[in-house]
Write a structure and sequence with these properties.
Blueprint lengths: L3 E4 L2 E4 L4 E7 L9 E6 L6 E6 L5 E3 L7 E6 L4 E6 L8 E9 L2 E4 L3 E6 L1
């Protein structure tokens, strides 16, 4: 089992930046896909970004060019660098990892972007 804890969320003005981290309780294999979803109030959870074990990245169209997903395998930590934040990026952000044949989720971290 893998426990994930997100951090780095908070309140930021539009145009600002935040970097989310996702600490894992045990080793995340370098071949394990990791990623980030978000869920805004009253909306469905949506995929923001993901990175495969081979390093291939995928982004939602709404964040392309602004967000960057990365991983530090030595620290068992995926990251999400968010730049040029917009009000519509306000949501709870969840990290996940696919390992041992199942998907593990963190509890989420709130990101609020103000005008």
């Amino acid at each position: 089992q893998v426990q994930l804890v997100e951090s780095g969320g908070g309140l930021v003005q539009a145009g600002g930046s935040l970097k989310l981290s996702c600490a894992a309780s045990r080793t995340i294999f370098s071949i394990s896909p990791v990623g980030w979803y978000r869920q805004a109030a009253g909306q469905q959870r949506e995929l923001v970004a993901q990175i495969t074990g081979g390093g291939t990245t995928t982004y939602a169209d709404s964040v392309k060019g602004r967000f960057t997903i990365s991983r530090d395998n030595a620290k068992n930590t995926p990251y999400l660098q968010m730049n040029s934040l917009k009000i519509e990026d306000t949501a709870v952000y969840y990290c996940y990892v696919v390992q041992y044949g199942r998907q593990y989720w963190g509890q989420g971290t709130q990101v609020t972007v103000s005008s």
